[in-house]
Fold Transporter.
Amino acid sequence: MGVGSEKTSSTTKGVYKEETDNALKAPLNVDAMLSKKVGHATAERATWGRRLEFVLASVGYAVGLGNVWRFPYLCYRSGGGAFLIPYFLMLFLCGIPLLFMEFAIGQYTRLGPVHALATICPLFKGVGIATVVISFVLCTYYNVLMSWALYYFFNSFRAILPWQSCNNTWNAVGNCSSGFPGNATHLQSASQQYFDHRLLEITNGIEDAGGLRWELFGILILAWVIVYLCIFKGVKSTGKVVYFTATFPYFILFALLINNVQLPGAKNGMFYFLKPKWSKLLEVQVWVNAAAQVFNSIGIGFGSMISMASYNKFNNNILRDTLIVSLANSATSILAGFVIFSAIGYMAHIHNLPVDNIATDGPGLVFVVYPEVFSTMPLPQLWAPLFFFMLLCLGLDSQFAMVEVAVTSIIDSFGPKVLRVLKRQEVIVLAVCVMGFLLGIPHITKGGMYVFQLMDHYTAVVSLMFLSFFEVIAVCWVFGLRRMTIMIKRMLGKAPNIYFRSCWMVFSPVLVLCILISSIIQYTPARYGKSYTYPVWAEVVGWGISLVSIVWIPLGALQEICTNKGSLLQVSILSTHVSSFRIICYKFAKHTICYKPRQL
């Protein structure tokens, strides 16, 4: 890599020798020493054009499809209004402190999750790699949801909505109902048959792939093209797009809420949504569900928040941004709950059914129940396109962040080598998008829904809890509260208060550990719908998917122990000091530009 890498190597050796004699002391101030030894310009990392762009991008990432289909159902099934107690407790003891922690790590180190976590705690550097892997795996099938939303969006402009009746070629007339079938288990609603037999053309199981759905294949290409065009210039282009994609869904949610509360039966639906069932608080699963919702929704453990914060200016007020993002995310979840259940209450009133028979979880809530709602509402050709366009905006913001994690990590890790071949960052983004598209193809086969459900269960549930636990341990206990406090004080001018210090040191690690243990004890295999269970070989594949990300944690620790001398404590602490002096260089056609992460 030329002169930059040679100087870095000699500096690192000298620092390591001195640190070996002072194992547990604070790191030395070598900023001046590095600036003298580096013989070329230091390039500052790209930054957001305005602070608002970072806030909107973070809110857009946190507020996704899970706020619309996951939170309302969890709240309803886990005690209604009583569920808000464990939810907000987990939010304030885990969600807000850990989001602040991730923002601080990204902003201070100016690195993506791989190098940022390797810098502050090399013994757990595999956690950084694992977060990138899980984000990329997630983005390969998350964009499939975008293709479904686009499919429904394009079909929402017809004079008669295609899921409105049973008089279509894809309907099984003998067991099709134009409304919700209630307790008649042999019947399916027209919207359910549209989802199963028109959109998915679903087979009987994961064993039968059934060939590609070519319409979805083309729409999936379109979805990835949209993603690429929005992020190919990095934060400069993403920062402009989020002004629309992060704010537009709120206009639609409020418009739907105003419309829905005027419908008959809407109050009954909202009452079911918030009706407290205090006995549910004694169930461990309710607390696990609350924690899982907080982690999944805010994005703890995915690396996206670290990546986006790495483009901040050094003195950006991340404490204020943390509160805005976390509270906006929770408020949106509650708002979406009122929107969804007011509509469900209306449907229960129309079909004279209890709300129990209509409320459902997952994709079925937004691709089956809500389309059925639109078919009975005034102006369905207005509300249906707006709703699915809102879903598209919600999903795109999350997709931007997940793809950006992969791009940032590639540039931070292999920037000079990759740019030597591909020349421009835009080509790197294109390569990541193409790879994501190819890996998403199995999800758009006729048996792809089973693949989708399997991936979602083992990626977003099983892997996430493991990664979150090790990230918290690496930062809060190994890296240490003292270093975190100094790091934040340098950026914000004041140390974090007792609330954050207590959460980082005690509450967050202990709660995450309890959640992880409870998740393992109460583990249930993946399933689709109420009846389909996966064969053993599919479960093995699912665990393999989980291990694809988790395995990097022990591998990274093993590699660090084998390549560094000293005790386990010395390896983790000394390497932390040395890693903070790494200089990252980018070699372009005519010159080389380097920058270094800030010293910890």
Q: What stands out?
A: Confidence is low (pLDDT under 50) at residues 1-43, 574-600.
